[in-house]
Design goal:
single chain; 364 residues; alpha/beta; D-Maltodextrin-Binding Protein, domain 2; 14 helices; 44% helix
Length: 364
């Protein structure tokens, strides 16, 4: 009965908001002529100054300029419009038109997108982002997952390779055994293989938790993320563990809305989206360079696990076969998605000269 009353109140509230014009979503203003102007609402869990938000800001500016103001983007940062795990649903229920969808929140909505969380696949974020784009174009199962959810993939956002921030040094993975380390997603499974106790917590809680001794370090972050959470001041040791890219996020738009827009607007949006990877890497590089400078000023000691140790670690984990098995049981051709993901990575790595910010900072 309580659940029914809650649903009734939710539906009633949505109806009131829609009737009064307070429910977010695409606002279309028809001028005296035949043109229609659009204000698209974008929901994100990132703050306004993050490299990911800056990437979308550049995209929005390009779209607005190329449509002569016909399409404008209104930003809703830091989950102010919708929570991170509700972002995709928000584009379908009228709260938003565009959304940043993180892979870590997408297991139930965009299951095939989570292939990008598999560890030890690539240490090149550019390659990962190109693979996200190409899978959407080249793999039917992957594309169908987006189509069935009613959203169109516009472009991926940068994240980078995972790092380990530690209070005490670790020369090889086995040295991590027995430590409590903040983590999340499939990174936690990888760390458990070498005896780590993964601790789930938000990134905003890491600094205080390390200061109080609750955790011995952190992971499931890239070097470009560290300044935003004050972690360049709390990282005596920073390790490149060799796990590589570990997650990602994408910008999606309500598919019906996109298809209803004039052709010139759709072309402008797609053209601007083609520049997003380049823009994203530039923003991530800038954030990573700032992090590296701050870490060096604090006297952080840098290291990386050897290729031999990383290979031995990789051979012990089964997250890739587990991923295929889990989603195959749900009716997806998950093996084809993983096979194509790896094929694309191999092709793109042979063409890319990009280095992750952590590699530029630490070396190797």
């Amino acid at each position: 009965m309580r659940k029914q009353n809650k649903m009734t109140k939710t539906v009633l509230l949505a109806a009131i908001l829609a009737a009064t014009g307070l429910l977010s979503g695409c606002n279309k203003d028809t001028n005296a002529g035949s043109d229609t102007n659009y204000t698209l609402h974008y929901t994100t869990y990132s703050n306004a100054s993050s490299d990911q938000s800056k990437t979308v800001q550049r995209w929005a500016k390009e779209v607005e300029e190329s449509t002569n103001g016909g399409v404008k983007i209104e930003f809703h940062y830091s989950q102010s419009l919708a929570k991170a795990d509700e972002a995709l649903k928000a584009t379908l229920d009228g709260r938003a038109d565009l959304a940043q969808v993180g892979s870590i929140y997408a297991s139930s909505d965009l299951s095939m997108f989570t292939v990008v969380e598999l560890p030890f696949e690539t240490q090149n974020p550019e390659v990962q982002m190109k693979a996200i784009e190409r899978l959407y174009k080249e793999n039917e199962t992957y594309r169908k997952n987006f189509d069935e959810k009613g959203v169109k993939l516009l472009y991926p956002l940068p994240l980078g390779s995972v790092v380990l921030g530690l209070k005490q040094p670790a020369e090889e993975p086995i040295n991590l055994s027995g430590r409590s380390i903040r983590s999340g997603g499939l990174v936690s499974e990888v760390l458990m293989e070498v005896g780590v106790n993964p601790v789930a917590m938000t990134a905003t809680d890491i600094y205080e938790s390390m200061e109080r001794g609750i955790v011995d370090g952190y992971s499931a972050l890239a070097i470009a993320n560290l300044p935003a959470f004050g972690l360049t001041r709390a990282t005596p040791y920073l390790v490149n563990p060799g796990v590589g890219t570990y997650a990602s996020s994408v910008v999606v738009i309500n598919a019906d809305l996109f298809e209803s827009m004039p052709d010139e607007y759709k072309k402008a949006i797609e053209k601007a989206s083609l520049n997003a990877i380049t823009n994203g890497l530039e923003e991530m590089d800038a954030a990573g360079e700032m992090a590296c400078t701050e870490l060096k000023q604090q006297g952080t000691k840098f290291s990386k696990f050897s290729d031999e140790e990383v290979m031995s670690w990789k051979q012990k984990v089964t997250v890739d076969s587990d991923w295929v098995g889990r989603y195959s049981k749900q009716g997806y051709d998950a093996k084809s998605v993983l096979d194509d993901y790896r094929k694309i990575i191999s092709e793109e790595e042979s063409k890319s000269t990009y280095s992750d910010p952590v590699v530029k900072c630490i070396g190797g």
